[in-house]
Amino acid sequence: MDLIQYSFNVEKDDFDRAGEASSNIKKILRQLGIDGAIIRRIAIATYEAEINIVIHSLGGKIDLEVDPKSIKVIAEDRGPGIANIELAMQEGYSTASDKVREMGFGAGMGLPNMKKCSDKFEVESVFGKGTTIKMVMYI
Amino acid sequence: MKINEIKELLCAEILCGEELLGCEVNYAFGSDLMSDVLAYVKGQTVLLTGLTNTQVIRTAEMAELNAVIFVRGKRPDQDLVTLARENNIVLMMTRDTLYTASGKLYCKGLDGVQIEC
């Protein structure tokens, strides 16, 4: 298997379509015959990242890269960035609005859960510019 | 526990997935917080919730939940039902509250998801 790459746009505040990119990524991985347990971890981590782009940013994209040894998911957004990453990584910490909480999110579990689902997890954020999350899962 | 037994215990109305009622689930999880569902649910699980937006089905899809039960008589719109059908997720609706529905299932032997805090 050579390197396989896909990219999906994610719009801000588009709650009706939130999850479509993750759903597509899940289907692609299933077609590639990736192990079901790995797919589930990637789907959950990607969906958390997608929801974060929808609720916190001005929009962004999710890139998928699959090579024979690993799967990379890169979620990149334009927006306010994360003021304090250390704080954002704590379970229960959230800056989400009441509207987002009514949707069932904003419990402060997103970033910690993405890390838990990944073999390698990196978050880079420039305050006022945007955030990039890189997650790697080994096959 | 078979999904069909859950339907009977909760006097629930099936919204989609009739053909999957013979499937077994091992755990139940009750929450309106989808973040917690994504963080804690493992294995063959049924979700009980009062939330009826599309993200409930996306969450069920990603976490590979077998069934979603809407409590307190909450009826989702047709788009949500269609999305669940596409993803082979059983949807049902009960008039019971989250507490009552959970209690009925727990006392018949359906375990809760164990979480580490």
Description:
The complex is a heterodimer of chains A (139) and B (117). Chain A has 139 residues and is of the alpha+beta class. Chain A has one domain: Heat Shock Protein 90 (2-Layer Sandwich), CATH 3.30.565.10. Chain A is built from five helices and five strands; from the N terminus they run βααββαααββ. Chain A has a five-stranded antiparallel β-sheet, covered by helices on one side. In chain A, helix 1 packs antiparallel against helix 2 and helix 2 packs antiparallel against helix 5. The radius of gyration of chain A is 14 Å and the shape is globular. In chain A, 40% of the residues are buried. The model of chain A has no long low-confidence stretch (mean pLDDT 94). With 117 residues, chain B is an alpha/beta fold. Chain B has a six-stranded mixed β-sheet, sandwiched between helices. The model of chain B has no long low-confidence stretch (mean pLDDT 96). Chain B is globular, with a radius of gyration of 12 Å. Chain B has one domain: Udp-n-acetylmuramoylalanyl-d-glutamate--2,6- Diaminopimelate Ligase, Chain: A, domain 1 (3-Layer(aba) Sandwich). Chains A and B meet through helix 1, helix 2 and helix 5 of A and helix 2 and helix 3 of B.
